[in-house]
Every structure is written in C-alpha cells, then in structure tokens.
Amino acid sequence: MKKAIFLDRDGTLIKDRGALKNIGQVEFYKNIFDGLRRFQKEYLLFIITNQPYIAKGMLKTSEVRKVHSYILKKLREKRIIIKAVYFCPHKKEDNCDCRKPKPYFLNKAAEKYNIDLKASYVIGDHLSDMELALNAGSKGVYMLCGHGWEQYLKVRAIKDKRISICRNLCSALKRI
C-alpha cells in the first residue's frame, strides 16, 4: 500500500483570501515547492478543501475548478504532481458526507489509489483538518500559518500523539 499526504488548500498551500474567483488571487507560501518536491519522494500528494462559498452563492463551481487548474499547473511547473483535488461545495449546515472533518474524500482516495491511511498525513491550518486526520485513522500536522494561530489552543487540547504542530511546511517536513 502507498502513503499519502492530504493537503488543505487555503492557509496551507496558498494564502487564504476567502472566495477565490480568479487566478490572480492565488499566492503560494514561500518554500512550499521545495517541501512538496521532497514529500512526493515518499508520498502521493492530494489537495482536500472545503469550499462553502459555492453553496453560499459567492463562487461558481467553474471558478473553483479554474483556480484548482491554475494551482495544479503551477505545481507541475515546479515538478510537483498532485494526484487529485477533492473539494466539498457545501455549507457546514448542509451536513453532507464530503465536508471535512468527515473522511469521505480520504476513503475515496484510499480505495482508488491503494493508500494506507494509517501511514498517511493530513496537513492543514484548521481544527477540522486535524479532526479529519483522526477520523480517517491518519496522522495530522497542524500548521501555524493561515488560520493556525486562531485555533491553536483547541488543537493543542486534542492531546493525541498522532497530531503534531508545526510552524510551516518546512518544519512539517522535518517532523514527518
């Protein structure tokens, strides 16, 4: 079985600017490319993101797909391959099966790509990313970039050895 890293999008790979309508709003964090190239030597890479702006009528699915295509293109230019991008278009109140922290997309990826979720990681800057990791039986790396400091105390209170807290992707690379 293969190992994977499931990356949150906004606040982890790129700066969180809310409802991204166009590619001009996409800004990658510094040193992200080098870290991802090093991760992909041992792990399959995926992006998993909640995009409630679609359900709220603030974004069209086509706009989200266009931003994802741009992100994937920029990553490919840096020799980084993302196996798939999974996004939930629902609001929290919709109580759907695909919204983080539910493990729907991780289970889907595990089945399709033969992934051992226990040997895999979720990296993100929200409490829901860490809950996703635990719900899937994976390990989590909580990033202090993006919204990381906002929910730091809640994540620290989880007290599960499968959750690590790191300042940025470079420190996550050392931890993993």
Spatial order of strands in the largest sheet: 3-2-1-4-5-6
- What helical percentage do the residues reach? 25-40%
How many strands, which pairing sense, and closed or not: the largest β-sheet?
6 strands, parallel
CATH topology: Rossmann fold
CA radius of gyration is 15 Å
Order of helices and strands: EHEHEHEHEHEH
- The structure class reads alpha/beta
- First CA to last CA: what distance? 18 Å
The tally of strands reads: 6
What percentage of amino acids are in beta strands?
15-25%
- Total separate domains: 1
Notable traits:
alpha/beta, six-stranded parallel sheet, globular, Rossmann fold, 176 residues
What's this model, at a glance?
This protein has 176 residues and is of the alpha/beta class.
Structure description:
The protein is built from 6 helices and 6 strands. It has helices spanning 32-39, 61-77, 104-113, 127-136, 152-156, 169-175, and strands at 4-7, 44-50, 82-88, 121-124, 139-143, 163-166. Strands 3-2-1-4-5-6 form a 6-stranded parallel sheet, sandwiched between helices. It starts with a strand and ends with a helix. β1 (4-7), α1 and β2 (44-50) form a beta-alpha-beta unit. The chain is of the alpha/beta class.
